[in-house]
Design goal:
Shape: globular
Strand order of the largest sheet: 1-6-3-2
InterPro entries: Cyt_B5-like_heme/steroid-bd, Cyt_B5-like_heme/steroid_sf
Pfam families: Cyt-b5
CATH architecture: Roll
Number of helices: 1
Organism: Companilactobacillus mishanensis
Number of domains: 1
Structural class: mainly beta
Order of helices and strands: EHEEEEE
Protein name: Cytochrome B5
CATH superfamily: Cytochrome b5-like heme/steroid binding domain
CATH class: Alpha Beta
C-alpha cells in the first residue's frame, strides 16, 4: 500500500475531537496519536492534534525519543 500523503489542510481534520483520529506531523512524517493516553481528546500539554509540531518537539522534555514507538500513517506534503 502506498504511503498516504497529507496536506496541512487535510491534517487539520485529524484533531482527535468528535471521534476523529489524532494525527500530528513531525519533520514531514505523520504519526497516529489516537491511542496514546496523554493525547486523549487530541490535546497534550497545550499542543493540539491535526498540526505540524516540528517546531514544538525540540522543546518537549522527551524530544524525539518517543517517535520510534508511534505508528506512522503517512507523510506531510507542502
Amino acid at each position: 500500500m502506498a504511503e498516504k500523503e497529507f496536506t496541512l489542510e487535510e491534517l487539520k481534520k485529524y484533531d482527535g475531537q468528535n471521534g476523529n483520529k489524532a494525527y500530528v506531523a513531525i519533520d514531514g512524517v505523520v504519526y497516529d496519536m489516537t491511542d496514546v493516553e496523554p493525547w486523549k481528546g487530541g490535546k497534550h500539554h497545550g499542543n493540539v492534534a491535526g498540526q505540524d509540531l516540528s517546531e514544538v518537539i525540540p522543546h518537549a522534555p522527551h524530544k524525539k525519543t518517543v517517535l520510534p514507538k508511534l505508528p506512522i500513517v503517512g507523510k506531510l506534503v507542502k
